[in-house]
Structure formats: structure tokens, C-alpha cells
Amino acid sequence: MAATAFHQASLQSRGYFCDSRLSQENGNAPFRLISKGFKLDIAMLRRGNYCSRKRGFSVIEASNSQTTVFDQVSSPSNGAMSDTRKKSNEAALILIRHGESMWNEKNLFTGCVDVPLTKKGVEEAIEAGKRISNIPVNVIYTSALIRAQMTAMLAMTEHRRKKVPIILHNESEQAKAWSQIFSEDTQKQCIPVVTAWQLNERMYGELQGLNKQETADRYGKEQVHEWRRSYDTPPPNGESLEMCAERAVAYFTEHIEPQLLCGKNVMIAAHGNSLRSIIMYLDKLTSQEVISLELSTGMPMLYIFKDGRFIRRGSPVAPNEAGVYAYTKRLAQYRQKLDEMFQS
Ligand SMILES: O=C(O)[C@H](O)COP(=O)(O)O
After folding, report:
1. Does 89 or 57 have the greater pLDDT score?
2. Rounded to the nearest 5°, which phi and psi values hold at 296?
3. How many angstroms separate the alpha carbon of residue 243 from the centre of ligand 1?
4. Half-sphere exposure (Cβ direction) of 140: Cα atoms closer than 13 Å
5. Which of 65-74, 121-130, 289-298 has the lowest mean pLDDT?
6. 16 is in an annotated binding site
7. Mutate to test the pocket of ligand 1, among 108, 113, 145, 201 (most ligand atoms within 8 A of CB)
């Protein structure tokens, strides 16, 4: 009990409970935290991050082709907006867990099985898009799985800037060549979408396709809870959260953080456990705290990256929620620009 109170206080001090206010208003919590006891530190990840961040810079400098694509595709056509970006070392980071999938609906362990969204999942993705429709997005990262990709694309149909998300196909030279865009103006109205298997859901091993309730009845609630939420116990022949973090957080630090450092606003559409591992890294959660971190489907979560730090802003309730824009001048300016451009 004492440990529970301690973790709740520590989580509260990090701003988690602003989300439970949102959950009351929306009947759906973006983050649900129930404290439990567990042990591990993420110093290794932080050390990894430090090296990766340095590597990330050189990736950006050396890998000219990728940077060029981003720059070409994401340069805002409006000069005033790009001026704002140049002056600021701040960037927005939006995380979205995919909307409800057809196996979420059936309560089946899904993991890396590539299952599409339900109608409710489609609606959740569209609702998520409305909530972030005034927040700048320059680059989108999704997993390689269709439920995350559908979520990203559907969310972007609601964005007021009306740029077109375009999936980059870098799997072969031919795929790259065959998906080239030959108009600079058109490129400027596009947002690159990078798909990465490293952001996939944790591989659930021999639980994939099994019903969660039936599995708990068979192996016991506690065993199944340990497989689902412990940091370092893998499900049979599957990945633990720790193993999932090794690839998801490494991808984040090597590929996504350098974009944020360059002032690019990033949206990531991924999965319950790949995002839990990334949030563990962003919020410096301990292995005990992450056990209690639950993410709702289709709920966007906003972070501001500033001076090398991630500041958690919770989940935007609606496009016009004052709190989100009150926090940074840059977000307010972007929204004002959209108001001027589209007069709506
Ligand atoms: O892969 C799955 O089954 C879920 O989307 C995430 O499952 P979990 O909440 O059991 O980890």
C-alpha cells in the first residue's frame, strides 16, 4: 500500500492526473495507471539514448537522402511558419495508439498479427485527428502494421493544414524510384510517413490469437497479468516489454529524436506496448511504474520537446482546448496561422 501511494504521488507530480480529469470528461482515459510493485531501472536505456542521440546527429548529417526527402516533403509553403520554426528549438510530439482492432474487439492477443481496425477503431482514429487538427505535424512514423497505419492516415484526414500523408517506400531502389514525386509544389503539400517494424506491437509469442479471458482462466489471472504487464517476463516464446523497448526505444532515439532536435513536429502511430516502452523512456518511468501504465485505443498524447527535454502535455480534449495552446507560444502561433489561412 505504501508503495502504491508512493508511486501515485510520483506519477501525480509528473502530471498524469491531468489525464484522469480528461478521462472523466471523455469516459475514456488516455493513460490509466494502477500502481504495482516491480523492479528494474532504465539506466541502460538512458545510456543507450545518449549514444544513440549522438549517432542520430550523424545519421542526419550523413544520410542526406533521408533528410532531403523530409525537407522536400515537409517544407511549409507559408514563410511565416517556417520562420517560427527556425527561431525555436521546440517541437511537438504526438503519440497515438491505434484505434480498436478486430482482435481487440474479440479480446484476442494480437501482437505482431496484422489485423485491421473495426468501425469503432476507424471512428476513434478520426476523433483523434480532430483533437490534434491544430497541432503541427511534419513527419509521421508508424509501425509496419495496418492498424497503426490506418490510424495515422485517418487521423490526418481531419488535420486543418490538409497536407497529404505519403508513405515512403524505401524497401528497394525500384520502390524508391517508382514512388518519386516530380512536382516541388506537390511535395510541399505532403507529409512523409515512415513505416518501421521496430515500432510494431510486442511479439506475443504463443499467446497470439488466444482469447485473453480464456488464457487467464487456464493459466491464472496473475500469470497472465505478469505476461501482459511485467517489464521483463516474456510470454511463452514472445517478447517482454524490455525486449520490445530494446528495438522501439532504440528506433526512437536513433531516428525520431534527431527529427525533433531539428525542430520537426512528429506524430507516431503505434501500439500499446511499443508506446508504453517509449513513454517509459520519455517520462523516465521505473520498471514498477510502467506496469501500471495502460493506453487507450485511439487517444492522442502530446509532448513538447524543448531544450533536450520531453514535457508531457496530456491528451488534447478538443482542437480548441485552451490548455494545449496556453503551454507554448509556438503552438498558439501555428493555430493562429491556420485560422488566418483557412478562416474557419
Ligand atoms: O497485442 C495485443 O493483444 C494488444 O493490442 C495489447 O495487448 P495487451 O494489452 O494485452 O498488452
Report:
1. 89
2. -80, 155
3. 15
4. 31
5. 65-74
6. no
7. 201
What residue segments make up the domains of the chain, in order of their start? 25-337
More confident residue, 9 or 137: 137
How far is Cα 244 from Cα 247, in angstroms, rounded to an integer?
Answer: 6
C-alpha dist (Å) from residue 175 to 18, 67, 197: 45, 18, 18
At the topology level, CATH places domain 25-337 in: Rossmann fold (3.40.50)
**Of 101, 104, 191, 85, nearest in space to 146 by CA:** 101
Model confidence at 315, pLDDT cuts 50, 70, 90, reads confident
List of residues 6+ apart from 15 with CB closer than 8 A? 312, 314
Could you tell me how many residues make up the chain? 344
Dmax over Cα atoms in the chain, in whole Å? 62
- Atom index in ligand 1 nearest the CA of residue 272 equals 6
**Using alpha carbons only, what angle is made at residue 182 by residues 181 and 184, rounded to the nearest 5 degrees?**
95
103 is in an annotated binding site: yes
**Is there a catalytic annotation at residue 201?**
yes
Cell numbers linked to 207: 499467446
Q: Is residue 98 flagged as an active site residue?
A: yes
AA letter at 333:
Q
Q: What separation in Å is there between the alpha carbon of 333 and the centre of ligand 1?
A: 38
Asked whether residue 59 carries a pLDDT value surpassing 90, the answer given is: no
Residues having CB closer than 6 A to ligand 1 are 104, 109-111, 201, 204, 228, 272-273
Task: Work out the pLDDT band at 145, boundaries 50, 70, 90.
Answer: very high
Distance 201 CA to ligand 1 centre (A): 8
Indicate whether 113 pLDDT > 70.
Answer: yes
Q: Across the chain, what does the average pLDDT equal?
A: 80
Mutate to test the pocket of ligand 1, among 109, 244, 277 (most ligand atoms within 8 A of CB): 109
- How many Å lie between the centroid of ligand 1 and the Cα of residue 204? 8
As a whole number of angstroms, the distance between CA 161 and CA 286 comes to: 38
Question: Is the ipTM here above 0.85?
Answer: yes
CA distance 98 to 184: 32
**Which of 143, 199, 271, 299 gets mutated to test ligand 1 (max ligand atoms within 8 A of its CB)?**
271
